[in-house]
Amino acid sequence: MNDIITGIESGDLVRDNGQLPSEDELSKRFEVSRSTVREALSKLEQRGTVTRQHGIGTFVTSKPMIIDTGLEQLESLDTLARRMGLETQVGESQIVERAASLQEAEQLQIPAATPVLAVNRLIMAGGQPVAYLVDVIPTTFLRAQDLEKVFTGSILDIFIKQAAPALSHALTDITVEKVDGPIADKLNLHNTDVLLKLESLLFSRDGKRIDYSFSYFIPGYFRFHVVRRVNPGEIFSPQET
After folding, report:
1. E strand or H helix at 182, and its extent?
2. Is the same domain home to 205 and 172?
3. Pairwise CA distance, residues 172 & 170, whole Å
4. 159 plus 56 within the same structural domain
5. Is the four-CA dihedral 5, 10, 12, 15 of positive or negative sign?
């Protein structure tokens, strides 16, 4: 599926009339079975990337929406989308205050069963689910009532707007996980699909851990990159080589 998306973006797979090669041609090109191609096209049709006309072929509906961004700067998904001229909406959501789980308490470095605010929500774009976000925040920093009028999907934006606690940085692990269970259902995915997962801890300037979050992204809608610079001390002159 991602190979087909890449081919669409580059134009390599798209004919002048917007039509894609046949299932048989795609099967040979990517060296997979026709059933695999058919399943990939079915998923792309669900996302609105392509439309299939029986007896005619498969056509690109529009330029696929891709949120392409670097991860060096800490900013919300909503902010990223707006900067790219895209609009996101909050779909199904759950906001509840409860006791922290053992894992949450360990990550946030708080006593077990400390009250936390758990915010789970589905993020939509173009009428399609594109991400699922989970945030767990000690209630000393944020309460459910604080979200009643200002919540647009981003906990980070709320902290930035409040200017308290003052934010410092986030530590984030990036992994690829096979999707299963409720999250797969909410994102209209199969259990064989994979998601980009960002597991993150947000720190205040005084070193406190104020937010433990999970962000699940459908790869076809997102592309993340990181700028990595050469250490000046490791650059050798021609004479040294």
Report:
1. helix 181-186
2. yes
3. 6
4. no
5. positive
Based on the domain organization, do 106 and 22 belong to the same domain?
Answer: no
Phi-psi region of 157 (alpha: psi -120 to 50; beta: other; left: phi over 0): alpha
81/144 same-domain check: yes
Give the integer Cα–Cα distance in Å for 172 and 123.
20
Structure tokens, 220? 């076809």
Pairing of strands 67-70, 222-225: parallel
CA–CA gap between residue 83 and residue 194 (Å, rounded): 27
Q: 107-134: per-residue pLDDT in tens?
A: 999 999 999 999 999 998 877 788 999 9
**For residue 102, is it within any domain?**
yes
Beta strands in 1-147 (DSSP E): 50-53, 57-60, 67-70, 88-99, 115-125, 128-138
**Helices within 13-139 (DSSP H only):** 23-30, 34-46, 77-83, 102-108
pTM > 0.85: yes or no:
no
The closest of 149, 117, 147, 122 to 135, measured between CA atoms, is 117
The answer to whether residue 234 is domain-embedded is no
pLDDT at 104: 97
Residue with tokens 């779909």: 91
